[in-house]
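User: Good morning. I'm curious how iron/sulfur cluster would be positioned relative to this chain. Could you predict the structure with it bound?
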Amino acid sequence: MGTLATDRSSYRAYTPRPFTRDERADVTILFGGLHWRAERVLSAVFASQGYRAQALPTATKEDLLTGREVADIGQCCPTSFTTGNLANFLRKESVRIGSDEVSRKYVYFTAGSCGSCRFGQYHQSYEMALRNVGLEAFRLFLMAQDSLDQGAAKGDGLEINMPFTLGTVWTLLCTDLLQSIEYQVRPFEVVEGETAKAVDESVDYLCEVFRRRPNRGRKWGPLLWHLTTPYFVNALRDVHRRFGAIEVDRLRVKPIVKITGEFYLQTVEGEPNYNIHRWLESEGAQVYPAAIAVWLDYWMRWYVQGFEDHIGIDRFARQKMQAVRTLQRLFGWTYNRLRRAMGNLPAELPDQYELRRLAAPYFHSRLSGGEGDMLVGKALWAHLHKKAHMTCELSPYACMPNTMSIGAMQGALGRHPDLLYAPLEIKGDAEVHALSRCQMILTEAKKRAQKEFDEVLRRTGMTIERGRDMLANRPEMRRATYRLPHLGVVGTAANLVLHLAGQGRR
Ligand code: SF4
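Assistant: Good morning! Here's the predicted structure, ligand included:
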């Protein structure tokens, strides 16, 4: 008893040794947890700021097992994947150059939060994992999510300033748009592999664009420049032109599957989510990926709500709320400006306040953690606006917010029984089970896509042969960059038939 009362050593917070400016040239900053396009361009942003940086390899099943072994076994699976991923990378490097050298040569940089879920405990997980692999001297740093300019992080080696933060945000916007167009084109490409090649070249090109980003000072100058410059717009126009060389056959009938779920699982592309994006495509679906920008938009909405709740308590709450709303509007405006540069092909940002309104009967907007009320809101939004035939929600094993949202979705399904919803529990090691469950719902989605297509043919009096003849005379419509209007049906092929029928009448 006495020992428990007096021994405070167990409560010591993790304090990394500082990372200093003098070390910058020799130390490599490790980061990860996003999709590969964003990670590659982010490396260029780090380089443009004078850092050496390297994205960790995408996590594997082996990393999951290591994460369970060296950190808390009951933690949610994204925590196991990411801690195991870091631990395995460092272990391998330790074998190569020794653990002292690893602790000297690398630091890890990740997003942090107080979190109402596991997210608030990530650093403890990492710390435990590092201790268990004998690397307690290794340094990891958290970037708070609520400040654009955080100055030097634990020493002056890493400075999270305006140019760095803006570079990160613009990277996420540009690579979101690229990912969106990629998933709209690949399922319809006539020559296999052309889309992958265009994406690869575009990512290399964007790396160069971000590496050559001009230096506009350190405080408000960079913000003004990023908001007003045509620099990124022109770069994305070039990317759009590259895609223009790809020929597509949009008469292929495919169900559209919207991916939602916990941030890491919906974003990453690899073993942590059973390669679900590629798997769905191989099963004949068109994937509607989850943009990181939607989460950033939600994060701003979260602060707006917080200030909204303090009106009448904090006398500046209204002004603070307006300030974040302005920031949020600027964010949406920037997204749309960049989207226009890509011919308005990438998916639009859903309105956060509409998502909140849609989710409100089922999930309280003030419940935080994970994606909060957004999972319910996004599933309903995609269904009601005819954006997808089906929603596939990637729900991590042992994730509290996702479990709540799956429960809440039952209420939404009661009122919208037509909504095709596949919540997949992702454990990392139960692939067959999760994919077979997804396949069951996907089969229904395929039937709906076909039925919708047949119905449109019947309504317009068109045939597939007639459609192909019309397309043969309109080469611009066979380009990947041709923007097909959304004409009130979900599927790409069905919208194309309606569009062709409209053109035929002119
Ligand atoms: S949202 Fe879920 S999976 Fe993600 S950190 Fe929180 S508990 Fe873990």
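The CA atoms of residues 256 and 315 lie 47 Å apart. Residues 76, 78-79, 117-119, 262, 369-370, 396, 399-402 surround iron/sulfur cluster (CB under 6 Å).
Let me know if you'd like a different ligand tried.
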